[in-house]
Amino acid sequence: MRNQVFTHNENSARIEAALYSAGRPLTVDELVKASGTNSRDNTLKIISDLMEKTRTVFKALEIAHLEDGTFVFQLKSQYTPIIRKFANQPMVSGGALKTLSYVTYEQPVLSRRLVQIRGSQVYSHLKELERVGFIQYEKVGRLKIFKTSKKFQDYFGIQDVNALKGNLLSTKS
b/e for 42-67, b at 16 or more Cβ within 10 A? Predict the structure, then answer.
C-alpha cells in the first residue's frame, strides 16, 4: 500500500475522528498515525488549531492536553453533574468489573478458579464480559480457560497485559 497524501482539512478531520471515537486519551504518536501527516510538528499544529476551534464553537466540550502529554476530547468538568442523569448505564456492572480484574490479574485462568474466588455469580459476570467482548476463552475438555481480549486492551488503553500484571505485583509490596 503506497503512502497517501491528505489535504490539511482531511488531516484535521482524521484527528477529530480519532479523538472523538477513541474514548480515551491519545498520544501524539497515535494522532500522527491517525492524521496521515507523518509529521509530529504538523500534527501538533493541527491539534492546536482544533483546540482553538473547539473553544470557540463548543461550550460544553473540549480537547484537553493532559499532564502526561496525551490529548482527549471530553466534556468540560463543570458539566459532569448536569449530564450524570442523562448518561447511559455503565457498559458492565460493578461485579463484572471485579471479575474482569481477576481475569486480568490471573490470566489465563480456569473458570473453576474464578468460581472459587468470586462465587457462583461469576457465571453471569463472564457472560456479561463475553457479551461486550472484554474476555475470550478456550475450551479444554469440560473446562474453560479465560483471558482478556484485544478489545479489552484497546478499550482500557493497555499495551502489554504482562507489564500491567508486573506493575500490580510491584504495588502489592
Answer: ebbebbeebeeebeeeeeeebbbbee
